[in-house]
Amino acid sequence: MISIGAQLTARYRYSGQLCSRAYILKVNGQAVAPSAVTRDGLPEPASSSAALDAGTASDGWYYDSAAQEVWVWFPLASSTSTAVALQ
Which letter does DSSP use for residue 59 in this model? Predict the structure, then answer.
C-alpha cells in the first residue's frame, strides 16, 4: 500500500496557494499485473500508457509488462490524504 498524506499548508491562505495536485506513481518490480488497483478502497479504472501520455484520463492505471511496472495517476485535493493498493 502507498499512502500520501495531506499537504501541510501555511497557517494563512495566500494567493497562488495550491489547492490540488496531480500524482503519477510508478511502482517498480511487479512481476505480474495486479488484478485491480484501488484508492481508498474504491477501484481505479484500468487504462493505457497512451492515455497517461496524452493526459486524456483524469485517473487510471496500467501495467507495463516489459518494464514490470505499474503506473497509477489521479488528482488529489491538497488537504486530503489517500492510500493506493495493488490487488
Answer: S
Q: What's the rounded mean pLDDT across residues 71-80?
A: 94
CATH number at residue 46: 2.60.40.1180
Q: Is 53 within the bounds of a domain?
A: yes
Apex CA 22: angle with CA 16 and CA 27, to 5°? Answer: 145
State the DSSP H helix or E strand holding residue 74, giving kind and residue range, or none if neither: strand 69-77
70 in any annotated domain: yes
Q: pLDDT tens-digit profile of 27-41?
A: 999 999 999 999 999
